[in-house]
Amino acid sequence: MSEFKTFYYNLKTGKLPKDFGGLTFVLLADLHNRTYGPGNERLLAAIDRERPDAVLVAGDMLISHTESSFAPALELFQNLRKRRYPVFYGNGNHEYRMRIYPQVYGDMYREYAGALRECGVCLLENEKTVFEKEGVRLNIYGFELDRKYYKKLHREQFRREELTEALGEPDPDRYNVLLAHNPVYFDEYAGWGADLTVSGHLHGGIIRIPGIGGVITPQARLFPRYDAGHFQKNGRDLVVSRGLGTHTVNLRVFNPAELSVIRLKEGTAERGRKLWESR
């Protein structure tokens, strides 16, 4: 895996004013300490070309090993800060593991989270914030799934009420963005009220079969439903990144690493076009 490709997702919503010019989000997920040139210069150049209104992070930007460094991720966020992009970060299972097991990882998570905030990153640990552009306000939520939802060879039943317990009820009159690392539970996210969920975690199914999709998940489940790309349920959207790096299984077949660009405009919700291009 020597390079990434840029995938575009064009979404519409009736929750934006008719005279509003729209929003562009860049989505980053599953970098796993990968670098594209010194300081991730090629990735940064691709982000700059899109001139995003904000950067959304769906987790696993590092690797939760006690001997691993989080310097590649932090250098990326330091460079994003220099560009003054608002960055909203939801934890993946690697960050979450570091946070809940201090007996294993010591102060690694505290140091990482502190460094992110010094970079101006809005780190959302089961929290909500508001993003505003030209007087239009959106809610952005970061949700951490419990470790039991990441077990291999097993899928735990997830209750929609867990989102309400962690985040409260979403505002039905405002566009609600949910950063949720694991896309498997999209039905519950949409039912809770997320207008847009952004995820990663499945690495596109690792091996992709043209016309069929991803083959296997990190939990060793075959042919995942929400493997990569754009999905809809009852007018609500899910965008799943193939991820920018790999972990454990350092393999991609017909499955390029992905920088995701989400273009959100006013209009009747419809299935967005999915395009990609190499940079």
The secondary-structure class comes to alpha/beta
Shape, principal axes of CA atoms: globular
Spatial extent as radius of gyration:
17 Å
Averaging pLDDT over every residue, what do you get? 92
- Compressed to H and E, one letter per element, the order equals EEHEHEHHHEEEHEHEEEEEEE
How are the strands of the largest sheet arranged? Answer: 5-4-3-2-14-1-15
Count of extended strands: 15
Q: Gap between N and C termini, in Å?
A: 14 Å
DSSP helix count? Answer: 7
Beta-strand portion reads 25-35%
Question: What are the defining features of this structure?
Answer:
279 residues; alpha/beta; seven-stranded mixed beta sheet; six-stranded mixed beta sheet; 7 helices; 15 strands; 21% helix; disordered C terminus
Write the layout of secondary structure elements.
Elements: E1 4-13, E2 23-28, H1 41-50, E3 54-57, H2 71-82, E4 87-90, H3 93-100, H4 102-105, H5 108-118, E5 122-124, E6 127-133, E7 136-143, H6 161-167, E8 175-180, H7 186-192, E9 196-199, E10 208-209, E11 213-214, E12 229-233, E13 236-240, E14 257-266, E15 274-278
Parallel strand pairs: 1-14, 2-3, 3-4, 4-5, 7-8, 8-9, 9-13
Antiparallel strand pairs: 1-15, 2-14, 6-7, 10-11, 12-13
